[in-house]
Structures are given as C-alpha cells and as structure tokens.
C-alpha cells in the first residue's frame, strides 16, 4: 500500500503533544513502521496512529477522506520547524 504524505522529525516533547492530540493510548495506538521514501527510495522509521476500536458510524461524521496531505494545504496551518520555534505557542500555529 502506498500512502502519500509528509514525514516530520519530532523531539520527545512534540511526541508527547502528538500523543495527547491523538488520545494515545485511550483512543489510538501508536505503532512504529518502516517506510520507503518516494524521493530517494531510502528506508525510514515512522510512527503512525491507529484507531483502537473501529465504528462504522465514524465515516458518516468524518471529514472528507484525503488522498494526500500537505502542511501547505487549504487549512492554513503551515508546519513550524524546531529551529523556528521560539515559544510553546509557536507549536500550535
């Protein structure tokens, strides 16, 4: 299976924030997987969050399924690199 998206390097603090956002481990499990980058074919390790308990009604109330994701998308929430973070508020832009 191929999934198109973005890969980010996060530190321990950012991972804690992501865990909280994804309600890990209550609602989602976090799993480490191997991925192959389409840009150069290199293999990396990444975390993904997987819903612990599937319910069919989630599709009826969810947003439109994305075929791709970019931090430059219409949501207007551009990713902030670690070196550009000057305060905790910067992480939530």
Automatic annotation (TrEMBL):
SUPFAM superfamilies: Gamma-glutamyl cyclotransferase-like. Transmembrane segments: none annotated. InterPro entries: AIG2-like_dom (IPR009288), GGACT (IPR039126), GGCT-like (IPR013024), GGCT-like_sf (IPR036568). GO terms for cellular component: cytosol. One of its GO terms (molecular function) is gamma-glutamylaminecyclotransferase activity. Residues 3-53 form the Gamma-glutamylcyclotransferase AIG2-like domain. The active site is at 22 (proton acceptor). Belongs to the gamma-glutamylcyclotransferase family. This is Gamma-glutamylcyclotransferase family protein. The gene is Cnig_chr_III.g9013.
